[in-house]
Amino acid sequence: MTQFNPPVNPLAVATSRNPATGELIATYAFQTPSEVEQRLDLNAAASRLWRATPMGERVAAYRRLAAILRERSENIAALITAEMGKTLVSARAEVEKCAATIEWVAEHGPAILADEPVEVEGDDQVHVSFLPIGTVLAVMPWNFPLWQVIRASAPIMLSGNGFMLKHAPNVMGSAYALQDAHEAAGFPQGLFINLVADNDTVARTIEDPRIAAVTLTGSMRAGSAVAATAAKALKKSLLELGGSDAFIVLADANLDRAVSAAVEARFQNAGQVCLAAKRFILEQPIAEAFTRQFVAAVKQLKVGNPLDSANRIGPMARGDLRDELDAQVQRTLAAGATLLLGGKKIEGPGNFYEPTVLADVQPGMAAFDEETFGPVAALTVADNVEHAILLANSSDYGLGGSLWTQDSSRAQRIARRLETGGVFINGYPATNARIPVGGVKKSGYGRELSHFGLREFTNAQAVWAKTVD
User: Fold this and answer.
1) pTM above 0.90?
2) In 218-352, at which residue ranges do the beta strands (DSSP E only) sit?
3) Mean pLDDT per 10-residue interval, the chain, length 469 residues
4) What residue ranges define each of the domains in the chain, with the CATH number in brackets?
5) Measuring CA to CA, which residue among 160, 154, 132, 156 is closest to residue 65?
6) 274 counts as catalytic
7) Annotated catalytic residue: which of 37, 83, 98, 274?
8) Considering 37, 240, 371, 448, which one is annotated as catalytic?
């Protein structure tokens, strides 16, 4: 086998800083070629062992993992808050969501992955088996340091595959907390393993024959690069590349409920959510009332120390991300949008940004065309329902969307016309272990969670036994 031997900068490190204070938490040296080679070998050996492990033992390991995450919840939640700035309340909820999802996968996964019989003519016996394909390399983002990983790793590993995690550099502490939790739960050593590396090393890892496939959640640029490398190596890839979800409020909507949901949908996790409302498309008859109530509600959001439960919005994860968001706001205003609230960085330590509401946002403006990954809401008025659908679909992205109306039959008809991977009627985008998540257009392809996610990285092997006379 060809040895893994990419060039590497021995001085390169992954750095984690507290985004609320700017204080250095830790640095993690990028792994050397020999260290990457060792991890690939260790993972390959663990994957062979895991593939042969009975499903009942895999399930037991996952039940132990859920228990361990709950036991360590306070420490892990504090680490998440320190590394990426989400409120401690949200971090605790993230840990619990991971534990609950693991339990769902452990309970329902065996039946979903069981052989599926197929009826054919005659007496032949046919079934489809869902078999592991090997190790999946996962390139994961920082905004949900545990959840983004677990929603990928639990289905991938329960189906018998290995898992190599290349996490975002600023949340490597969370990555190692997950690796340690898997080892404590009794998974084979190296089956869930971390890769600390630069982009060149990631590309060469994808090309390595010990890697069977790759999954990525991140930017369009990162997704394009990873998909190209995987395609060249003839390997499967799954991409979740963010979105600019439309939150459509029609004239007959329950306005109070819509406004309350809109605030949560846009400003949770300081607006740093892929599957979140970003463009608010308001049918003309209710646009003024919605805007007035929405701005009033956003004004009540408290920004500050994420350890303080009174604060709803913490800092953005990195200073460069805050700068990029601010540039999008200023470009949108320069193009003719109206600033209703916020619109600037908060002075002092930490990467805090004012909760911001922009009105009169139109196609062609940054806040409409681009993904705004921070506490910024863009409001657009639609002349009528048809115009609202047109505006919602006028995006390169297609991850999720919300639709608010009290006409349930009309809502179902409109949902089928929205170019998204998910539609939430009278609710805001969310994830659930039972429901597939993924996008279309430049939001990516493939599905995580539900039975789709459990089978996504398997070999659907058809076994056709001819009748012997």
Assistant:
1) yes
2) 236-240, 245-249, 277-283, 338-341
3) 43 87 95 96 98 98 98 98 98 98 98 97 95 98 98 98 98 98 98 96 97 97 96 98 96 98 98 96 98 98 97 97 98 98 97 98 98 98 98 98 98 98 95 97 98 98 90
4) 13-242+444-464 (3.40.605.10), 245-396+400-433 (3.40.309.10)
5) 154
6) yes
7) 274
8) 240
